[in-house]
Amino acid sequence: MFNTARKALFALLFAGMAWPVFAADLPEPQVEEAPPPVYEQPVDVGGWYIRGDIDYHKSDVSGIDYSTYSLDPCNCGNILVGGKSFDYAKLKGGFSLGAGVGYKISDHLRADVTADYWFKSNFNGGTSDLVTTSTEVSKMSALLLLANAYVDIGTWHGITPYVGAGIGGARVKWDTVYDPNTTETNPGASNWRFAYALMAGASYCLTDKVILDAGYRFSHIQGGRMFEWDVSSAGPGFDRGINTHEVRGGLRYQFGGNNGCAAPVVAYQPEPEPIYTK
């Protein structure tokens, strides 16, 4: 009996000494962290917005043609004898103010209608014949109305590059065309013309409602009558069209929906309880 008790004691001592070794080899329970919360953008994408813009533009006149008159030998009045073109025609730069209303259709598509008033730009031109050379001056202003569509390419760090195009009309107004060195004048003409535009730029989220917009726009206005006939001068005259390069900046304010600037929201938040596995 003594031997049996002694053997049992040795067995317990051996087990106590060996347990740390075996315990080191046992796999420790692993703690799996809860998955991170899932974010998603608001699903209500569409929304109405208003916009305001200011620009500096430089316009080029493609050319100016005019009719020439000569005194009828029968003293019956002036008769048309031919046509000529200006030797040169230049428009100086000017500013414009614009406003519009639009709708964001999806993450990548929006549309608006805009109205821009171009303040007067100074015009300088010249004509000549075999005998004389004259300087012609005037001023040009315009109201440009366009229906536009844009493609927002994507948003990175709040910046969204875009491209767009517009179609519409412009009312072009020319002031009196005159030679400052003589008494010859021609009344300026005012008329509606076809117009289109191409634009590219980028917008930046200032807040979840307000977007800063900056970009470039090229617009073309169809040619039309520039000035009327006058008894003391030639006429009428027609410009061949106006190409305009604009550097634009403005703000857009969206009333509802998601304009791409709203912070993502948490779709769901899993319980942060650890999961143990063997």
Automatic annotation (TrEMBL):
- Could you confirm whether the keyword Cell membrane appears in this record? no
Is this entry keyworded Signal?
yes
What keywords are annotated for this sequence in UniProt? Signal
Signal sequence coordinates:
1-23
Q: Which residues form the Outer membrane protein beta-barrel domain?
A: 45-255
Protein known as: Porin family protein
